[in-house]
Amino acid sequence: MAKELKDLTKRADNYSQWYNDLVMKADLAETSPVRGCMIIKPYGYAIWEKMQAALDAMFKATGVQNAYFPLLIPKSFFAKEAEHVAGFAKESAVVTHYRLKATEDGKGITVDPEAKLEEELIIRPTSETMIWNTYKNWIKSYRDLPILCNQWCNVMRWEMRTRPFLRTSEFLWQEGHTAHATSEEAQEEAQKMLGVYADFAENWMAVPVVQGVKSETERFAGALDTYTIEAMMQDGKALQSGTSHFLGQNFAKSFDVTFLNKENKPEYVWATSWGVSTRLMGALIMVHSDDNGLVLPPKLAPIQVVIIPISKNAEQLEAISAKINPLVEELTRMGVSVKYDDSANKRPGFKFADYELKGVPVRLVIGARDLENGTVEVMRRDTLEKEVLPFDGVAKHVQDLLVDIQKSIFDKARKYRDSHIYECDNYEEFKERIKDGGFFLCHWDGTPETEAKIKEDTQATIRCVPFGYEQTEGVDMVSGKPAKCRVIIARSY
Question: 417, 443 in Cβ contact below 8 A?
């Protein structure tokens, strides 16, 4: 068995270390020389590319277009939206100089003190300020609206505590920024994009999510409402997996973005923004994977099927390859990504362990005896179940199996999630049970004081006021005050 697999920490022993091991050993990412940053390796980036492609198509289906805006933002732009800048001030990286020079002894490099910028520049933590300064030039009349823009880019938030994919100082994401003529249109857009995120999470990532609206304390800086999808990891913690924000007219007023309405009167534009990031990679790992490595949903797996020959000599391998090559072509025509690994520099046992570690959904194995019998061994990664099947018709079987695996891992994750959602009205009971994880549906009196006490006492936060759950009035378990709704409270990443 591959050394990488033997060294993988067990989930039950140390969930956090299991996650870190898996990121590194499955060749997803590695640490960078820059604190808090990561290098996404080709296999990890291939998964992100499939996510990106699917989401990009979904965005464009709603009328969104891609654009690109600068990485560096003048500091004065942030000063125009005080609430927004307050939310990012502690995480912002600042560029102060534009040139380096050699030290006097010629052995080192230093900042040239004469090359100080007239205005300091912020490496974007998010792009609202840059984009709304730009939209001022694009928008004059109601005929220019709506504007539906998205950009794929990197951002920088100087995080103190980092973990690959889940929280890094630099990460990849998309950020949508839309401009509208009415409040109703903007709110509809924000909720529509939340639906796109939920659709992607469940139907591509096979990750069940709860949709809801954030409390005022947990809103995005500068938003009037923040909508969220919350996923449950296998340790019972929540992961905020995507957010969509109704920004009202805050940014339009800060940057003086107005339009002439149909009555030829000036109005401020209404705005939304929405984004998901490489944090989704963390969700993909933690929701599905096991002690043998990654378990990838077929729709996002870079390699959906791997075929491994077992041969004693070159003649046997040639015969197996002659049988396999038409199968590879057939699967490829079906739209299945397949790899025939006939490399001679690794033993079959190593290959088995390596592809299990990397979460390839289906593995086919064929040896000399299979060649004689007209059979092939088929293994599904999610359950590790094996069966020997007739070679004829195996392509259609594999195609159906991939569909079944996609559904099966979603159903498994949803069953786990649903069995760990609890109604709770007793604070002492809550404080004990929250240690073991789960989503707790609790009445909340709507005050930030109660929210702060829960966080102080338990390290849990109000994740959202969930949609799709029947809301009843009750009594807040902390304050004893009347409460109009139940919220989801959980510990989170």
Answer: no
**Residue 265: is it exposed, middle or buried by C-beta count within 10 angstroms (0-12/13-18/19+)?**
exposed
Query: What residues does 156 pair with on adjacent strands?
Result: 170
3-state DSSP call for residue 213? strand
Condensed to tens digits (0 to 9), the pLDDT of residues 96-107 reads: 999 999 988 888
- Contact (CB, 8 A) for 58 and 143: no
Q: Which of 236, 281, 409 is nearest to 23 (CA)?
A: 281
Query: Per-residue pLDDT tens for 112-152?
Result: 999 999 999 999 999 999 999 999 999 999 999 999 999 99
Q: Where does the pLDDT of residue 381 fall: very low under 50, low under 70, confident under 90, or very high at 90 and above? A: very high
What's the rounded Cα separation, in Å, for the pair 400 and 413?
Answer: 20
Q: Which has the closest alpha carbon to 115: 134, 95, 137? A: 95
Instruction: State the average pLDDT over residues 276-293.
Output: 98
Residue 65 CA to residue 62 CA, distance in Å, equals 9
Strand positions, DSSP E, 221-304:
225-232, 238-248, 258-260, 266-268, 270-277
Q: Phi and psi at residue 274, in whole multiples of 5°?
A: -160, 145
Contact (CB, 8 A) for 304 and 336: yes
Helical (H) or strand (E) element with 252: helix 250-254
**What does DSSP say about strands 65-66 and 266-268: parallel, antiparallel, or unpaired?**
unpaired
Backbone angles phi, psi at 9, to 5 degrees: -60, 140
3-state SS class at 281: helix
Q: CB of 151 within 8 A of CB of 274? A: no
Exposure on the CB side of residue 205, measured as CA atoms within 13 A: 32
- Fill in the DSSP letter of residue 33: S
Q: Tokens for 340?
A: 């025939």
Q: Per the structure block, which two tokens stand in for 185?
A: 């249109």
Asked if 92 and 176 touch (Cβ cutoff 8 Å), the reply is: no
Cα–Cα distance, 409 to 295 (Å, whole number)? 9
